[in-house]
Write a structure and sequence with these properties.
eight-stranded mixed β-sheet; elongated; 299 residues; 2 domains; Rossmann fold; 13% strand; 13 helices
Length: 299
């Protein structure tokens, strides 16, 4: 996939919704009353206004000042079984796929998701892992990995996001996980499957944070335990997205990409070095890694 055919994704803060109960067949008024967002008398007022004006329930409620845009988005997320992050949640605003699911950057992420499904995930039962890599630092790997994992989970795929950057990890910050056990602890035999954290607000998404920063991340990733772990997790999840450190600073990204079998290459306009990226992608191909896509940030 060349640069011209790759989707362009602008790195801007994004926004998502919290997981409500299944709401197929329930009216918007019933959902909002059950959730404590609307009183029964106000719901009746909106229904009368709706009948008189021929408007939708949500538009009628907003016209009367009884509903907000956030209330309407919440009710729609319940009706269509679509995860919704309210603004008061503590997850990072960088998770645009969750906070702003209708925005243009998220539409571009969905286009990228479709290409990845066709090029990798739907082409073989053993193709579950994808490393998100870049040649240099500050090119947006963690941002892309997190939001890409979210849009896969929104498709109904059982999705796992692994933070394999055991040098300067970020996913625990984006998902507000605190200091918990993670990948390093599992590879060192100090933690088990409990280190994988299900994100309650985002249906079908789990995160395995980096864990304690170890003195030997390259050695941990190079051991057979990492391959065995990915194989085991592949039996539990449909899609595994793996965040990595910059390739210019260590060999970790190469190791993770080889173990995953495929890589998505991230670059950033006016930041990335083309010669550096060319050398990096060439080396990945030499290791047998399938380069299934590329993303240009800040285009």
């Amino acid at each position: 996939m060349n640069r011209n055919s790759a989707p362009t994704i602008r790195s801007v803060p994004l926004t998502l919704p919290s997981k409500p109960a299944t709401g197929a067949g329930r009216s918007m008024g019933t959902i909002l009353v059950d959730a404590g967002r609307l009183s029964p008398p106000d719901a009746e007022r909106i229904l009368h206004f709706q009948r008189d004006r021929g408007l939708r329930f949500g538009d009628s409620g907003k016209a009367l000042g009884l509903l907000t845009d956030d209330d309407v988005r919440f009710a729609l997320s319940v009706q269509f079984d679509y995860p919704y992050l309210a603004h008061e949640t503590k997850l990072s605003r960088e998770l645009v796929a969750a906070y702003q699911p209708g925005s243009q950057p998220v539409e571009q992420l969905r286009a990228l998701r479709s290409q990845l499904m066709l090029r990798w995930f739907d082409t073989g039962a053993d193709r579950r892992g994808l490393a998100v890599v870049s040649a240099g630092a500050k090119e947006g790997r963690s941002y892309i990995a997190a939001n890409l994992a979210i849009v896969f989970s929104q498709l109904g795929e059982r999705t796992l996001l692994i933070d394999a950057d055991m040098r300067t990890p970020r996913q625990h910050q984006l998902f507000n996980l605190g200091a918990t056990a993670g990948l390093s602890d599992m590879l060192a035999g100090r933690a088990g499957p409990e280190a994988v954290i299900s994100i309650a607000a985002l249906q079908d998404l789990s995160v395995l944070p980096a864990g304690v920063i170890p003195p030997n991340p390259q050695e941990l990733l190079g051991r057979q335990e990492f391959s065995k772990l990915l194989q085991s997790l592949g039996e539990e999840f449909d899609v595994i997205i793996i965040d990595t450190p910059p390739a210019s600073e260590c060999a970790d990204a190469h190791t993770v990409a080889v173990r995953a079998g495929a890589a998505l290459v991230v670059a950033r306009q006016n930041i990335s070095s083309m010669p550096q990226m060319t050398r990096f992608t060439h080396s990945l191909r030499e290791f047998g890694v399938a380069l299934v896509g590329s993303v240009l940030n800040d285009a």
